[in-house]
Amino acid sequence: MTDKFAHTVYMYDTVKGTSTAVTNEYIQAPRGVCVGPGDTVMVCSENMNSVMHLTVDGDFLGTYFVDMQLCVSKDGTRLSVTNCAKGATNL
Questions:
Q1: CA atoms within 13 A on the CB side of 6
Q2: Which domain of life is it from (predicted)?
Q3: What pLDDT was estimated at residue 90?
Q4: Is pTM, for the whole model, over 0.70?
Q5: Which of 78, 89, 77, 2 is CA-nearest to residue 49?
Q6: 73-78 contacts: CB < 8 A, separation 24 or more?
Q7: Tens digit of pLDDT for each residue in 35-65?
């Protein structure tokens, strides 16, 4: 779960019954979260134009900077990239 205004990602472990609040200088207005490869989490950071890569424990793995919008399918097999109405961006 994300809190756009608090710049925070909340990680919940339903097996252990624990939760962790994750903050990072690159997590700015997090908007979307999906499951990444190998039990990791991908977080779209709107204000940074980036995708954060986190472990399920909330540890930082990396940042992927992009100047366009990204979306991952529910089954995790497809990545969609779109341009903005403000101008065309190429990948």
A1: 9
A2: Eukaryota
A3: 47
A4: no
A5: 89
A6: 76/34, 76/35, 76/36, 76/37
A7: 888 889 888 888 888 888 999 888 999 888 8
